[in-house]
Amino acid sequence: MATTTLSPFIASTPFLLQPLKVAKPTSHSLPSKPFILCTSQNRPGSSSKKHSTNGGRPTSKNRRRSSYGTSRRSILKKTFNQEQVDFTAPIPDDPIVGIIGGGMSGLICALNLEKRGIKSTVFDTGIHGLGGRMGTRVIEPQQLVFDHAAQFFTVSDARFAEIVNDWREKGLVEEWQGTVGELEAGGQFVPLPSSPPRYIGVNGMRPLADSLLLETSMVNVVRPCWISKLEPFNGMWHLSENGKHCGQFDAIVIAHNGKCANRLLASSGLPLIARQMKRLELSSIWALLAAFEDPLTLPSNMVTPPFEGAFVKGVDSISWMANNSRKLLKSPDNGPYCWTFFSTSAYGKRNKVPQENIPVATAEKVKAGMLAGVEMALGLPEGLLPKPIYTRVQLWGAALPMNSPGIPCIFDPRGRAGICGDWLLGSSLESAALSGIALANQVADYFQGGGARPEEFAVGLHQEFQPLEGHDIGQFPGLDSETQKDGVQNYQLTT
Ligand SMILES: Cc1cc2nc3c(=O)[nH]c(=O)nc-3n(C[C@H](O)[C@H](O)[C@H](O)COP(=O)(O)OP(=O)(O)OC[C@H]3O[C@@H](n4cnc5c(N)ncnc54)[C@H](O)[C@@H]3O)c2cc1C
């Protein structure tokens, strides 16, 4: 008979499941904190080789019992120290991992779990596709195209180079040949060296994310799906979306961050993971996507051809601008001309609103402020920037990490839960990928050990955070922030 056993501290609370057994703390329990011991001899679906999309639905009997957590939510919210869940059930022969987040880090984690023979299901909120902050927007019927978060990436690690080489072989990635540089307010443009090379998605960033899992056979993707609850029960993690059961898993990966992750972890039974997530500070950045009928007038000191990307300096509302038509469509002579503009993080902070519900007045104000910033950056007289034929503003409320523990991943073996994401190592696509690889290997090593000696597999649960240097849209070799980094290699890709 499967049981969920709680420590004496918790056993006295009124919201317990039945049957209950008071457990003696195990040798690896936290002495000063309450914990939930979660064990199962009779795990639903543990012997099944079938990898179902929902991870195996619970029976009506345990569905009732898995209401664990609902009545306790309000109590736990008020509890400063939530109790630590402690899984002690043996790891099954065929474990499944639930990955919450289908951005670069979550997808790479799934891919690398498969390489180690482990199945997973990736849940992602994306309505238009996977990728998170690797988003590309195509606006029909005008055929406007914008990378609306990550713009390009660099490669400094052999493991990331392998992924990028694979994309190159498939024709999905190419070196960005366009001129990129720094643009001072008033229109002074200084090109940056083309080495280390910058890479772009041939059809934008999103197809790269979509391609990552195409050849996998052990990864399910569930999208759009917003996981709103994690519940440890019967030796497994039960995931649900607004009360709808989404499956049960032997371990979970949190591959997203920000307010959403903090809310999800607040009453999950993972206090150490939750605490690390809460330490993360994130910037906010406004994106303005704008299409113009005619080419923008670029600074007169510009070399020809005109720049395609610029880190903007000395303008409060703009930190980056890129000509997406030239970058992606390579059509210098035909309009419309699609530009992606990003605000500075200071401007994002000052004009922050709920990103899912942007007031019209704020959107208008930000649009005007950012277009004025573009004018200023290009050194155009006031009012001379042409009126765009299409605009869209979007707030990245959890844009980029401002601090980091500087470790590739976080893993709590007692709670069978880990975190991956860009912020663990830095603020770039490369750091997100490396984090996904690291967590996949950590989980696989832990599973291989049968779940024994959990203390040996704990990573990053108490790591201190340091402020992150970098540009408002990330860290890139070749820019000031990166010259301070020791040992950074830059890879020339093979294909
Ligand atoms: C404006 C901007 C510009 C940038 N420019 C660059 C650049 O030029 N070069 C570069 O290298 N990097 C850039 N970055 C950074 C880069 O985009 C990120 O480092 C990287 O994409 C992060 O990947 P991730 O997997 O850690 O997180 P994300 O991409 O954020 O993925 C997390 C995913 O989880 C999903 N999710 C969240 N909550 C849930 C839930 N409860 N249930 C299910 N799914 C959920 C989200 O929808 C998202 O898809 C930029 C970022 C921003 C914001």
UniProtKB/TrEMBL annotation:
Compositional bias annotation for Polar residues: 38-59, 486-495
Region of interest (Disordered), ranges: 33-73, 474-495
Cited InterPro entries: FAD/NAD-bd_sf (IPR036188)
Name assigned to this protein: FAD/NAD(P)-binding oxidoreductase family protein
A Pfam short name: NAD_binding_8
